[in-house]
Design brief:
Order of helices and strands: HHHHHHHHHHHHHHEEEHHEHHH
Strand order of the largest sheet: 1-3
Distance between the termini: 24 Å
Strand content: under 5%
Shape: globular
Helix content: 55-70%
Number of helices: 19
Largest sheet: 2 strands, antiparallel
Radius of gyration: 24 Å
Length: 436
């Protein structure tokens, strides 16, 4: 029995009880939502595990294994910490001058400002680790803080898995797999801005899927201000909006970056413009790819990565056109179906992976965003989740190889990315998801 008949039966029984002099049955109350700590237990445990393994590995186990007394620390973190310290001192003109090496938007310094403030208050030096600074005390402050804020990506992944009605065992497995992959970008390379930006844009997609475009726009704007690589996901979000909402969404998304970049450019235009538009990378240090010969060459052996990243954004727009055509029935829905959200996450993983396709010089942590989002899309069933997690873990650790062949290292990493995306989902094989 269903529909009006099913709902009428309890009301008839209730009226019969009242006529017989009985007490009306109380209305059935909805179960109270679980506390936040319970709902996010798995990503929180994964964060604690990553924190313990990361700090013990960098200060005790790592140095012991290689027979050194120096901490095994991520080199890239220190320049951003200096930029955060200058931001605290209102030295906006120094954000993009040496030794910061900052090439992303100023939000990367903003998120590290609390750690820099504690270091200042404690009188800890931000000197780069080296022969005269083997065990920098500031790492005991900056390291845990960096890992904790990177966990925004783990929380966002679990929130999306919950929205997709993924079972708790699979969410636990996802937290372990995502935490393992997060080691690459946070502990190994010291780029919490990538994790924070991807986490924020995932929360933005969650808000958009629930019919809250204004909230989604502000979260997207914050993500872009921290690390503009998430611009690759922006076209996919735009095609899911009604046309009348596009202008407001874009305006809100632009505000954080315009404010921060405007302040830095006003204080030091030349340094800001050069760093943000050229985005230099060094093929003698990192992994050259077959695109290296086409990249503009700069001083000191560096090449500009900016033009290739613009090409990746164009390719991401192509992904958005395909996804928008398939998901057009969901644009006017207040709340997306699970199939719609799952497919859009898969396309987002593809768009984020495009950065690795067109880079003239690759660094291992560039692979992480595509892997992280693909793992969420893979939660639809156990075989896909296990296979995608195995490949993503292999790519995360295998990418640390010092092999520098332009075709070899890059080719194997792209193969790993492609396999992860294949195992995560293959949406084009089935019919387009319908609106909820």
């Amino acid at each position: 029995m269903s529909g009006p008949e099913a709902s009428a039966a309890p009301r008839g029984l209730e009226r019969g009880a009242e006529a017989a002099g009985g007490t009306p049955a109380p209305a059935t109350a909805l179960p109270a939502p679980a506390p936040w700590l319970v709902r996010r237990l798995f990503p929180l445990l994964a964060t604690v595990g990553l924190l313990l393994i990361g700090m013990i590995g960098t200060t005790l186990v790592g140095p012991h294994l290689i027979g050194k007394t120096a901490y095994s620390l991520p080199n890239d973190l220190w320049g951003t910490l200096v930029a955060a310290q200058r931001l605290l001192h209102l030295d906006l003109g120094g954000l993009y001058t040496q030794p910061t090496g900052l090439v992303t938007f100023p939000g990367a310094a903003v998120i590290l400002a609390p750690a820099a403030a504690v270091a200042d208050a404690a009188g800890l030096s931000l000197q780069h680790p080296g022969p005269h600074n083997l065990q920098p005390a500031v790492w005991l402050v900056a390291g845990p803080y960096m890992i904790v804020i990177s966990a925004v990506a783990l929380l966002a992944a679990d929130a999306l898995a919950e929205r997709l009605r993924v079972s708790r065992p699979k969410r636990a497995f996802l937290a372990v797999a995502s935490g393992t992959a997060l080691w690459n970008v946070s502990v190994q390379w010291g780029h919490p801005e990538d994790a924070v930006a991807v986490g924020l844009v995932l929360f933005a997609m969650l808000a958009l899927s629930d019919g809250r475009p204004a909230r989604a726009a502000w979260l997207t704007g914050a993500a872009i201000a921290v690390q503009p690589l998430v611009l690759l996901a922006l076209p996919l979000m735009l095609v899911m909006l009604e046309p009348k909402r596009l202008a407001g969404f874009l305006a809100r998304s632009a505000v954080p970056s315009v404010v921060l970049l405007g302040a830095a450019a006003g204080a030091n235009w030349n340094a800001t413009y050069d760093a943000v538009t050229r985005q230099p990378n060094w093929p003698a240090v990192d992994h050259p790819t077959p695109w290296l010969s086409l990249a503009p060459h700069l001083a000191d052996g560096a090449v500009a990565g900016g033009p290739a990243r613009a090409l990746a954004i164009l390719a991401a727009c192509g992904c958005a056109l395909i996804a928008g055509h398939r998901l057009r029935a969901s644009r006017h829905a207040g709340r997306w179906s699970q199939a719609t959200l799952s497919e859009l996450l898969w396309w987002t993983a593809v768009a984020l992976a495009l950065r690795s396709v067109f880079e003239p010089v690759m660094v291992a942590y560039y692979l992480w965003p595509g892997l992280a989002v693909a793992l969420i899309a893979a939660t639809r069933n156990w075989p896909r989740l296990i296979a995608a997690s195995a490949v993503a873990t292999a790519v995360s650790f295998g990418s640390q190889s010092s092999w520098r062949s332009p075709w070899g290292w890059w080719g194997f990493m792209l193969l790993g990315l492609a396999l992860t995306l294949f195992f995560a989902c293959a949406p084009l094989r089935g019919p387009a998801p319908q609106a909820a």
